[in-house]
Amino acid sequence: MIPAIRGTHDILPNEVGRWQRLEAVIRGLCERYGYQEIRTPVIEREELFAKGTGETTDIVQKEMYTFEDKGGERVTLRPEATPSMVRTFVEHGLEQYIPTVKLFSLGPMFRYERPQKGRYRQFHQLDVEVFGISDAMLDAEIIEMASALIRALKIETSEIVINSVGCRKCRPRFTQALLDVLGNQLSRLCDDCQRRATINPLRIYDCKVKDDQSIIDALPHSVDFLCDDCCDHFQIVQSQLAVLGLDHRVSHRLVRGLDYYTRTTFEVLGSKLGAQNALLGGGRYDGLVAQLGGPDRAGIGFAAGLERLVLAMPEQSSVATPDVFVVALGEDARQSAHLLVRDLRNAGLTALIDYDARSLRAQMKRANKTNVRYVVMLGDEELARDEVTLKDMESGVQTAVARKAVVQRIAVADKETSD
Ligand code: HAM
Q1: Span from the CA of 357 to the centroid of ligand 1 (angstroms)
Q2: 111 in ligand 1 pocket by Cβ < 6 Å?
Q3: Contact between 290 and 296 (Cβ < 8 Å)
């Protein structure tokens, strides 16, 4: 056997129902909030993420699947969708065609991380992005949309955490204060943090090393260094969340592990997920579009990990059960049974048949295993009378039904039970 690659996973038939429900909820929600779907390639130039996600992030430094293709180009399996969405917005000049550019996308992402519950090397995200709107009301609306997603999925316990990381104007004052407070304690931090201190001190907050945490917890808070505009923006986001009735916690540690964020950052945390508890995360990135060669446009969005949402969704029977199983004995009956399953399927019913021409008992056993609602039995006797035997598997009642009436009879009964 050649096993699947570590950190990747198959979505099996008994799980796929949950995924389909999740995707249906997502599509409905995105439509109601005015988002249009786009699909971008999973493979992009390495440079897009180096510039977009940021050279100093763990993603770019340690986690990207990058290789040289046969033409000598450095390409990367996307670790996140935001840079691709920005590229698409710029490359296709989307703002010329769409009045408010609100986009969503669903698909696989790739990060070479240590696999554990809720953390994979190939995982899936819903990504949501809005371009061209700086108003703080939108920040609150996006957080409200994220929270509506969690509610729609009936995920019961979750927490909204927010922060503001300021803008280009006020960030330098904050990072200087951070380095001042750190002072000679810097040498007590891990090697990664020492590197972060010289290239992007904000990234020190991403550190997961246990021994570093007491030092990092005592560092200054970005919200205490915001310029007037960032301060007003953050106030409006918070008061708007209050208007929308959304409880939230401000966490100064929430700088998020990507370089592009400005002002608002947020996450929704779930309780059932253990260490990997972020169901979704996002924020504003007002300089990124220009940085990636586009016009100077604001940007904001979030991404949700679909595996984590599936894990957090309440259990529900998700195995789709077929409507009818056709059991046939004898060659002539098998011929007729094949026509019958075709007719049942054409009538919109899910119909199965046993292909191996085995005993009645073996076929009935297989039918039982599928939890089917009706079994139709066809043998020489039934054929001679142009009838079938219809068995309701719930009540156990068997009835003889004319061959030409059986499809209609099951379709009506099926409609009555689903109404
Ligand atoms: P992120 O926080 O890196 O943000 O990822 C968003 C979500 O993807 C996480 O909250 C988590 O649910 C899921 N996720 C991340 N890594 C993994 C993994 N290895 N295995 C399973 N799930 C994972 C971004 O990706 C940004 N692009 C979000 C954004 C959009 N910001 C603005 N717009």
Answers
A1: 50
A2: yes
A3: yes
Single out the residue of 7, 39, 207 nearest to residue 116, CA to CA: 7
H or E stretch including 332?
helix 331-346
Mean pLDDT of 137-160: 94
Residue nearest to atom 10 of ligand 1 (CA): 280
Sequence-ordered strand ranges (E) for 111-192:
122-131, 158-164
Question: Beta-carbon neighbour count of residue 145 at 10 Å?
Answer: 17
Q: Judging by beta carbons within 10 Å of its beta carbon (0-12, 13-18, 19+), is residue 80 exposed, middle or buried?
A: buried
396: its two tokens: 């156990």
The shares of helix, strand and coil residues in the chain, as percent rounded to the nearest 5, are 45, 20, 35
How high does pLDDT run on average in the chain? 94
> Please, which contacts does 410-415 make with residues 24 or more away whose CB atoms are closer than 8 Å?
410/323, 410/324, 410/344, 410/347, 410/349, 410/374, 410/376, 411/347, 411/348, 411/349, 413/374, 414/323, 414/349, 414/373
Q: Name the residue among 211, 218, 101, 220 with its Cα closest to residue 163.
A: 220
CA-proximal residue: ligand 1, atom 18 (nearest): 119
DSSP string, 58-84: HIIIII-EEEE-TTS-EEEE-S-SHHH
pLDDT class for 184, splitting at 50, 70, 90?
confident
Q: In testing the pocket of ligand 1, which one of 123, 159, 279 has its CB within 8 Å of the most ligand atoms?
A: 123
Confidence class for position 206, pLDDT limits 50, 70, 90: confident
**pTM exceeds 0.85 for this model:** yes
Q: Confidence class of residue 416 from pLDDT cuts 50, 70 and 90?
A: confident
Helix (H) or strand (E) holding 266, with range, is strand 262-270
Percent of the chain surpassing pLDDT 70: 98
> What's the pLDDT score for residue 418?
65
How far is residue 234 from each of residues 223, 267, 301, measured CA to CA in Å? 9, 15, 16
Strand order in the sheet with 65-68: 43-45, 74-77, 65-68
Protein residue closest via CA to atom 17 of ligand 1: 119
Residue with tokens 């990124």: 288
